[in-house]
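Retry 2 of 3 after timeout on previous attempt. Resubmitting structure tokens to design endpoint.
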């Protein structure tokens, strides 16, 4: 998938092929306005105002407590962008908005979209980052409100891939305990525990994350089976031979190589023989251009906002091997753009066949 200039008639097709389309303007001004329109529509409740059916602009503005003339501009922008339809003086939701942008739709990405308000601030540092090589320390200095936005956004993002992760991780039949390091909202653990009724999970995350995501976990109704533990993954005691499954999802991009090696070693020690360590991440492209526009731009995003940026399957497998685990063939996720799972098994008896 990619964002780009899509010709809508033969003349535009010819202009694009001939190199006459000013794509840098589309990629900057138009991409910026598209992003801002969708974000503003979500933030102001425009999509939810239209959930019950078509409305004229005055009614949308009344429901959202916004200025009617300015609201009309936004509604027209969203109509042109394909998020709304317009007929007989009324606006209605296009299916893309109904599916992904209503707050309470099953699998909604509403909170993941709102998280882009925070990401927009981080991405502002792109120029500084490239000049200095110093990334944003995104966890430092977040306000309580921003922690909420971050955790709700991550939870909504997990709607995309949690079912696939739960399906594709081959959990040992007799597994009872799992540790979800940097697990935040805990939804990956929830999905795994729902699929494996004998499994219970501990979600280890920073105290601010646990405070913000406790209500998100509570609404899953898993009770004691999926519980938070506040702590720093880099220093907390993870135990020995205590878990059958350790999941580290979307965390290792925050740490450098040495820190990840040490974390993976402690995770391996925490596993029981026969247990699994699953690292879920957006995967670093092997060579420039590999992974296309999405792979390249998300690699830059993680570089700006994390200690180290993304890692390749081979690098993650090397940490696992060094920790005495047996890495398996990497898995690409179909539902997580650019993401994959690097899974390894702890040998049943140290030093012998598993
Ligand atoms: C990008 S989110 C991923 C959340 C979740 N695993 C997922 O995939 O949706 C990273 C999480 O790691 C947590 N985190 C970052 N540094 C940590 C640390 N040193 N110890 C524990 N958790 C940490 C953050 O608070 C955040 O909840």
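Retry 2 succeeded. Sequence:
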């Amino acid at each position: 998938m990619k964002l780009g200039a899509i010709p809508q008639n033969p003349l535009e097709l010819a202009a694009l092929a001939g190199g006459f389309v000013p794509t840098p303007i589309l990629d900057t001004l138009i991409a910026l306005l598209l992003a801002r329109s969708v974000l503003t529509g979500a933030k102001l409740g425009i999509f939810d105002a239209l959930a019950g059916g078509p409305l004229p602009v005055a009614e949308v503005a009344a429901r959202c407590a916004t200025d009617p003339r300015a609201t009309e501009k936004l509604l027209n922008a969203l109509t042109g962008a394909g998020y709304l339809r317009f007929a007989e003086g009324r606006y209605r939701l296009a299916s893309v908005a109904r599916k992904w942008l209503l707050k309470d739709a099953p699998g909604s990405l509403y909170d993941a979209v709102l998280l882009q308000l925070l990401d927009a601030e981080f991405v502002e540092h792109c120029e500084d980052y490239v000049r200095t090589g110093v990334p944003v320390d995104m966890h430092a200095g977040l306000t309580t409100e921003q922690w909420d936005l971050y955790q709700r956004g991550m939870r909504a993002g997990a709607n995309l891939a949690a079912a696939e992760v739960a399906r594709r991780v081959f959990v040992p039949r007799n597994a009872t305990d799992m540790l979800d390091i940097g697990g935040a909202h805990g939804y990956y653990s929830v999905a795994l525990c729902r699929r494996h009724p004998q499994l219970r999970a501990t979600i280890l995350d920073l105290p601010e994350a646990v405070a913000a995501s406790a209500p998100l976990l509570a609404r899953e109704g898993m009770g004691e089976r999926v519980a938070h533990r506040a702590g720093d993954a880099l220093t907390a005691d993870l135990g020995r031979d205590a878990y059958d499954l350790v999941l580290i999802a979307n965390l290792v991009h925050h740490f450098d190589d040495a820190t990840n090696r040490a974390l993976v070693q402690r995770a391996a020690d925490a596993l029981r023989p026969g247990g699994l360590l699953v690292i879920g991440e957006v995967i670093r492209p092997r060579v420039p251009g590999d992974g296309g526009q999405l792979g390249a731009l998300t690699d830059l995003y993680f570089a700006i906002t994390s200690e180290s940026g993304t890692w390749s399957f081979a690098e993650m497998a090397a940490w696992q091997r060094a920790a005495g685990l047996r890495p398996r063939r990497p898995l690409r996720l179909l539902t997580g753009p650019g993401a994959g799972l690097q899974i390894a098994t702890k040998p049943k008896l140290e030093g012998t066949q598993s």
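Attempt log closed. Residues 144-345 form a domain with the Rossmann fold fold (CATH 3.40.50.150).
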